[in-house]
Design brief:
Radius of gyration: 15 Å
Order of helices and strands: EEEEEEHH
Number of helices: 2
Strand order of the largest sheet: 1-2-3-4-5-6
Distance between the termini: 19 Å
Largest sheet: 6 strands, antiparallel
Amino acid sequence: MRPDLTPIVYDAGTVVHINGYIIPPDCKSSNRIQIARRTSQEGVERWAIINGNTCLSKAEQCFVFESMPSNRTDEFIDDTRFDSVDEAYAFLTKWRQAEVERVEKLGYKVWPHKKA
């Protein structure tokens, strides 16, 4: 597992489950992006990149509202879920870099100025 990610741990007595990872911030923000475990109603475990009650969409390349589990379509699940933490982290890293480049093209600086 990636040493730069802080695990979010749920301790159920003798079994410890990792429910997600906190992503180190790349700017001064109160938002805390996480890679979180999401288990489907069928019991399939996948990972989502979340920020509050939104998750990162692969197709839209932005955070979208995550509704209650019973209201999520198969298309929504496929668009916002990853098979592994590493796959989610790689997507997030590419997305962050694209966002930095988009903002810099507008003439703004991202603080602190880092490349992902």
